[in-house]
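Hi L., both proteins are below.
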Amino acid sequence: MQTRLSRQEFLRLGGASLAGAALLGVAGCGGGGGGENTIGWQAIPSYSTEQNTDQARVDYLEEVISSWEEQNGEYTINPLVTSADVTAAMARLLEQASQNRAPDVAQIDGYILPRFYEYVQPLDDYLGDLSLEDWFPFARAVMTDGGSVKGLQFTTDVRVLYYRKDLIDEPPTSWDELFRVGEEVSGEVQDAFLFPAGRGEATTITTLLPQFWTLGGELVDDRGEPVFGEGENRQAMLESLGFIRECVERGITPRRVTEFTLETDINGDAASGQTAMFLGGNWQVSLLKEIMGEERFTRQWGVAPIPSRSGEEHATTAGGWAWGIFAENEDKRRAAVDFLRAVFVGDEGMARWCNVGGYLPPREPVFEVPAYRTDEYTDAFREHLENFARNRPPAESYTDISTALQVAVTQVVSGEASPEQALQTAVRTVS
């Protein structure tokens, strides 16, 4: 039986933000989104044919959707656009689903797909020659519930260590190696090692969680309750915050990293030659090539796993989006999966969409599809997705936890608090 979300749950996911969006008329439409032979397809603007400012994306979508409609001959696609505010969009969709008003197909932030398990339809009978094993392990983890496929992830991304190949022969793998290399190159650059440490999600998922995970830490328990301040998790968090503090105390990281709320905030330092290493995402390759010129960037910069305490275990955060199908009619569900295969999920569709959007494919075989464009960094990103990538926990408490941990990192970097004090404040904030 489907349950209605409480107002408290709705607001925790972002209902307050949604309320403002709805007043402006940008929140998504409700209901299935179409008649008997129409599939309502809901996406945020940058993934839709509606309100999308990227003409290359629009051209691709219109071309492939038109071709699919012509070949299908029975169903047409009705594009429904939701809020560009991801938190608001997901809050609205969860509210729609709880009231049995969700569109036939909807875009879902991959890591919170488990929150929709009770509402989305199982897709096992419609996958055809798509094998669940094609998806990387982190993607399979959120796509399945009790062995049943509940969504289809169609994009992803990953975080890595960028390092200057012209200054560093071998990238550091451990904390000790990072400190040593950072100190060795300090005379060559303004700041040896940069990472996001401001009030933004990048601070949690790019800077903190990879360290915390390699130390065996878990943010929440099986019920989604915060446990990062308890037992072994507490020790892992203290050591992670201590590592960040030591980077500053050793002089390889400046306190100004508290100004970096996004990975791309570091692009200026990287392009101007002011840093030797930084933590960032795969999407920065294309941006930095554009800024620096492709030849100079590829000559100077390499990528490697994010250093860990031991140098033997590594972790990184993967992101990305999934499609959930809510249509109750079996024929419409089958047609919806066929549509998604053609445009986003099948070999050719995923390759082309990842090309036009600059994403990484969450299905490993797509890396071998001729249509998928690769470069010097593709193999490294692929290795990270296969071996090191993890998802943020889907717990409702995660947003509050992440915000509290961002504050903790900022306090430690600025010298405002010790790791122990910062962690104590974070635990108290989410309790």
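That was the first. Here is the second:
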Amino acid sequence: MSDELFQKKAEFLSWCIEEYAAAKNLNGREVANLFYQKKVLDFLGEHYEILHTQGKSYIIETIEDFIKTEGE
């Protein structure tokens, strides 16, 4: 992976944490812990090419669906 792609993925993951926290009225640490426990960051990284082109609502919904699925 190139340094540029690594940087873009890192920025996207950070953005996802911040936006999910705002949408769910949580702080960044709570979301980071949740994402770690449910392996959300792995999922987002694996699907970066598709997800980073989508809108905020779609991404938040996708994260919610993934967390529900992983929690079962």
